[in-house]
Amino acid sequence: MSVREVNFDGIVGPTHNYAGLSFGNLASTLHEKRVSNPRQAALQGLEKMKFVHELGAPQGVLPPLRRPHIDFLKQLGFRGSVAQIIQRAQEANPRLLAASYSASNMWTANAATVSPSVDCADGRLHLTPANLASGLHRSIETADTLAVLRAIFKDPKMFAVHDPLPCSSAMSDEGAANHTRLCSGYGSPGFEMFVFGRSELDKSCVSPTRFPARQTLEASHAIARVHQLNPQHTVFIQQNPAAIDAGVFHNDVVSVGNGNFLMYHETAFLGGDLAVTDLCQSIRDAQGWELYTMGFSEQDLPLGEAVSSYLFNSQLITRASGEMTLVCPLEVKHVVNAFRGTQRILEANNPVNAVEFLDLRQSMDNGGGPACLRLRVVMTEQELASVHQSVLFNDSLYARLRDWVNRNYRDELSPDDLFDPDLVDEVDTAFDELQEILELPPSVFRMGL
Ligand code: SUG
To answer: Which pLDDT tens digit goes with each residue over 221-243?
Structure first.
């Protein structure tokens, strides 16, 4: 039976903006208050989906969440008409209004952690939405993401869509951005690698000092239990606190793995290369196959350039031949050492034999590269046939979404536009239309009004 990896990309929402909300994410801070281009952002995202789909990898979409999140503002005590709520939030603290408007659920690598059915003891595919507890604007995604995932992965005989972990500092969870499934073939049992930034309960565990560590060991352990993973096929590795302090807010900024290949920066893991040597040995012992690895030293690519180029946030796509294409952000082309790195990857002994570059500048300026924009779900044919079909990408969905974006999205959005009452009406129309295109239940596109 054929088993495929499906990329579910987040459609960039019509309120995509630069509000500087993510402390520790250098791009987010750098671009605070810049004018954004929502239409261009959404079209760049659609082009990536089309590109990956044409490489032969199945592709799906996850909808943006309805913004502004008026219920959230009401919860914070703002009252009155929608226009008054927006104005009062803006007067009290513009960052609260910005949080309610954030289109941050576009980065679906943070939507959930996913374990394919072959890895889980009950034979079902398990998904747990991330609580995103470390950031206010992201924590308000979770409830709606849960509703979206339950609407798409709706057959409980095949899919287990869990409640998120408790929204607390101890259980802070950022989803697949800190989780990599390695395997000898998608249909074989995988080796699931969880990377955490700190421990709440083990006080001997080092933590970063400058920027927050978003993923806790306790959250990673909990997800592995909830997904009924085999402890022999699971590993928990600590992220290097120095990397977090240098702007590596998620592990997918310094490492990416797919199938039997892992590439990483030497500062990615506490213990450096030794952590990867141990990982290879654990895989050999538990599953008897060899992981191809490619480490980059500080000399090959200084960490600062790894962060500015996002080389490790590229997507690794397995093509029908079994060989892989590395889909990089365009920025990699412009950072000499990162570009050289792509050539070294092509020359080295590993499954990658093609490199491509895509312009995702709008998302990159908020710290989201190609790999941030997709949630990977490894599925059997039968599972793929039982998901909500209207979110699966094809030429017709691509054309409809392009048309929808072109008609409904603003070309530009400045910080002041967030309290323009017309914006609320415009995005409401856009969400109503999208609900029809994707044929999702209205509960997924909550009115929030
Ligand atoms: O959580 N940026 C996101 C970027 C997430 C990238 N995801 C992965 N690495 N998988 C974040 O920091 C910026 C929003 C703003 O500042 O307006 C933001 O939320």
So the answer is: 999 999 999 999 999 999 999 99
